[in-house]
Write a structure and sequence with these properties.
about 90 residues, mainly beta, two-stranded antiparallel sheet
Length: about 90
């Protein structure tokens, strides 16, 4: 995480689960459900209920939903995020 301003951060995600994530061009967004401080996120809705399921949760356990813009998809970063992939 890199704080760009008091209310703006850049976050880099890595890992094998992101392998199918593709660069679909400009204006690409993702939704993130973030639990409130002190919550462990166990109230997450099963994926088969989709985003509508989050809004069905009680106010006191509903995570905050944020829309984030994908700045870039960096295929040069290894799955573990620590070393560059070898050139081919």
């Amino acid at each position: 995480m890199h704080r760009l301003s008091p209310s703006f951060v850049r976050v880099t995600f890595t890992g094998p689960d992101l392998e199918p994530f593709a660069d679909a061009g400009l204006d690409q967004r993702i939704k993130m459900a973030l639990p409130d401080p002190g919550r462990d996120g166990s109230e997450v809705v099963p994926l088969d209920r989709g985003w509508a399921g989050i809004y069905e949760l009680a106010d006191e356990v509903r995570p905050r939903v944020r829309t984030c813009t994908v700045r870039c998809v960096r295929q040069d970063v290894a799955r573990d995020g620590r070393r560059p992939r070898p050139a081919r």
